[in-house]
Structure to design on (346 residues):
């Protein structure tokens, strides 16, 4: 992949126990100082998150995860103490050695294609997105994809359906359910495609397999390409509050992977179904969500629309446009080709 985060840190070997007594105390002291620093910059938030396991805080805090480790550089043999904090859009790494302190700020390397749906009127399955998916994989030199069929119950049948479309494009698709350890499979994969179906079921299964935080960190570090369609797009966002699905099962949380910090409504349609239909329109349902204190802006992706995420650049691509529901409940039409990167700052 193009983007190599923490390249200086990657040359290192984690040894865990290579710092002598007094420098260990110094390192500990420094560690607490640095933690204090992040606590202070995070003080506007009521919830301070020191561990990504604390999911409630995780969603509210600008600091998504904090890690630290002792590292011995394989070339110089020099020991350093490294503290890494992932913020919403960036990763900050502070490396402390006997001689100097270095601070690295890395922009997010996330790369994702978030499709409104796999089906689009006038096209065969995924046909409207073929060119973009192929380009996305090709430019990252990826030729194998793990398909995540968790949103539906027939894992084999669903994987076969997607495989029979994508394999002929020159890529090898395998189902995540065929691996004995899904987390290991995701760890060693360069691209996943999360298919549509029921969003609640999908998110529940992702949590059960401990994949939510794993996928997030692999994507943000630039090691994993994410392709999502429909429910697979819903779970890539801040939360699944704006799915169109029925809550047929409880996931442990509605908070989702968070590749983007706002919500998406897939299959977005803005026409009133019929004059005799008296149920709420899609817009009314989205506005109900926007009334909530935890609401984020909503990107309504029309069928055939794709949100192309490349680091901090977000663009509407595909064959149909989108609609942004802003927090003040105004609505903005965004045609194909629009740069919507500003949504990262809303
Ligand atoms: N059920 C949809 C899908 O995966 C998701 C949604 O409409 O929210 O196709």
């Amino acid at each position: 992949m193009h983007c190599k985060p923490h390249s200086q840190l990657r040359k290192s070997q984690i040894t865990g126990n290579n710092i002598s007594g007094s420098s260990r105390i110094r390192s500990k002291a420094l560690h607490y100082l640095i933690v204090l620093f992040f606590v202070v910059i995070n003080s506007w938030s009521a919830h301070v998150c020191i561990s990504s396991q604390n999911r409630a805080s995780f969603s509210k805090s600008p600091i998504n995860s904090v890690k630290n480790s002792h590292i011995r550089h394989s070339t110089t043999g020099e020991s350093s103490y490294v503290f890494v904090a992932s913020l919403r859009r960036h990763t900050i790494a502070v490396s402390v050695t006997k001689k100097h302190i270095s601070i690295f700020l890395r922009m997010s390397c996330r790369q994702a294609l978030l499709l409104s749906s796999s089906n689009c009127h006038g096209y065969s399955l995924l046909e409207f997105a073929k060119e973009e998916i192929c380009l996305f994989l090709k430019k990252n030199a990826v030729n194998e994809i793990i398909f995540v069929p968790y949103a539906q119950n027939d894992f084999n049948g669903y994987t076969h359906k997607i495989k029979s479309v994508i394999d002929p494009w020159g890529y090898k698709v395998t189902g995540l359910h065929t691996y004995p350890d899904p987390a290991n499979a995701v760890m060693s994969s360069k691209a996943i495609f999360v298919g549509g179906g029921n969003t609640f079921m999908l998110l529940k299964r992702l949590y059960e397999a401990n994949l939510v935080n794993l996928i997030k960190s692999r994507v943000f570090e630039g090691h994993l390409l994410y392709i999502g369609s429909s429910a697979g797009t819903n779970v890539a966002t801040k939360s699944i509050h704006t799915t169109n699905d029925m809550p047929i099962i409880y996931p442990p949380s509605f908070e989702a992977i968070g590749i983007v910090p706002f919500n998406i409504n897939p299959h977005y349609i803005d026409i009133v179904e019929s004059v005799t239909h008296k149920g709420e329109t899609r817009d009314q349902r989205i506005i109900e969500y926007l009334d909530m204190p935890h609401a984020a802006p909503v990107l309504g992706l029309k069928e055939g629309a794709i949100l192309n995420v490349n680091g901090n650049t977000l663009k509407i691509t595909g064959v149909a446009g989108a609609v942004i529901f802003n927090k003040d409940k105004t609505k903005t039409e965004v045609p194909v080709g629009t740069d919507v990167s500003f949504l990262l700052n809303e």
About this structure: Confidence is low (pLDDT under 50) at residues 4-19, 42-65. Residues 110 and 220 are 5 Å apart (CA to CA). Residues 7-107 form one domain.
